[in-house]
Amino acid sequence: MPTLFTKIMRGDIPGDIVYQDRYCVAIKDIAPQAPVHLLIIPRTEISGVSAVEKTGDHQYLLNAARNIAEEMGIEGYRLVINQGEAAGQTVPHLHMHFLAGRDLSWPPG
Ligand code: AMP
User: Fold this and answer.
1) Residue 42 exposed, middle or buried by CB count within 10 Å (0-12, 13-18, 19+)
2) Domain holding 43: CATH number?
3) What spacing in Å lies between the alpha carbon of 91 and ligand 1's midpoint?
4) Which domain holds residue 44?
């Protein structure tokens, strides 16, 4: 059964895709928490950080974030990955939030 994000990436359900490369896709979050709120999602269905292989080249999510920031002319942004229910993960397909466009307080809630 494909995940919600795989369905969006395949075009089976609507989604606002703003970036794509060989490894991942970025979409606009449906409930944005900042003027810019994207989700960077690996094309491969990995359930979360805890399921990422311990070896290998996993910098593709960071490369995508940097590419998006350069393309959009954004200097400051926050990257967030929620792992597990306790951290607020609701979609079991690894994704990195890209937040920008307003001052972001610290620590996060
Ligand atoms: P998380 O809570 O870290 O798992 O993040 C899941 C994110 O997916 C939330 O910020 C939701 O607003 C977002 N989301 C859920 N459904 C959709 C959708 N159909 N299109 C875009 N974003 C979605």
Assistant:
1) buried
2) 3.30.428.10
3) 7
4) 4-100
